[in-house]
Specification:
mainly beta, Immunoglobulin-like, 4-stranded mixed β-sheet, 9 strands, globular
């Protein structure tokens, strides 16, 4: 599983890895976590992947997608949060 830390600060969103890999054969998932506030993950049109739901457990917000089923593609998505500039990282799906 690829774990991505989301940071919300000074009107900007940051992630600790702008591009991660998820393996189809490894049944990998991608999980985003944030301690700074609520956020949403939205896959870009054409990705054919549903947007994950963000949940809150205490002071940690989490979203999870996968396992991915089609390799050889890159999924572009947006990290959004109210009052912050949108960030556009990628997930590379490998065999």
């Amino acid at each position: 599983m690829a774990d991505i830390q989301v940071t919300l600060k000074d009107g900007k969103i940051a992630v600790d890895s702008a591009k991660v890999q998820a393996s189809v054969s490894g049944n990998h998932k991608v999980q985003w976590k944030c301690n700074d506030g609520a956020f949403n993950i939205e896959f870009k049109p054409g990705s054919d992947w549903p947007n994950p739901t963000t949940t809150r457990d205490g002071s940690v917000w989490t979203a999870e997608a996968g396992p991915f089923t089609k390799h050889g593609r890159t999924l572009s998505y947006a990290v959004k949060a109210p009052g912050y500039e949108t960030l556009d990282p990628d997930i590379e799906v490998i065999p």
